[in-house]
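Thread: quick sanity check before group meeting

JM: Hey all, I'm pulling together slides for Thursday and realized we never actually wrote out the predicted structure for the chain we discussed last week. Dropping the sequence here so it's in one place. If anyone has concerns about the input, flag it before I start.
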Amino acid sequence: QLQASGGGLVQAGGSLKLSCAASGFTFDDYAISWFRQAPGKEREGVSGISVGDGTTYYADSVKGRFTISSDNAKNTVYLQMNSLKPEDTAGYFCAAIRRRAGVHSIVVLTSDWYDYNYWGQGTQVTVSS
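JM (edit): ok, ran it. Output follows.
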């Protein structure tokens, strides 16, 4: 089970920090990613972290602005979002995918959304111009 929180309304240039709390599975065995989806647009992978080895991934659209991290003691992944833009407006979802032996973590992190095993309920981020 994944529980996402931290969304809200912010002005362009502002910041938000999303949280994704995991339970019911072995946290270290999974990679956790954030996806977003705006009305009329396809679901987009934003960022991800392989909890066991710390490998991270960022979409080009958020590199340098977003930072993903994990607190393994709390089974929680965070997404710090700075310099927010109106085009970042979307529903943000966290998802978990089990890592596979012999497969590089970056390959796991960039898997298609339908390959992910668990999904959170989503949190809305709205950036006003």
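AS: nice. The longest strand covers residues 90-98. The two ends are 34 Å apart (CA to CA).
JM: adding both to the slides.
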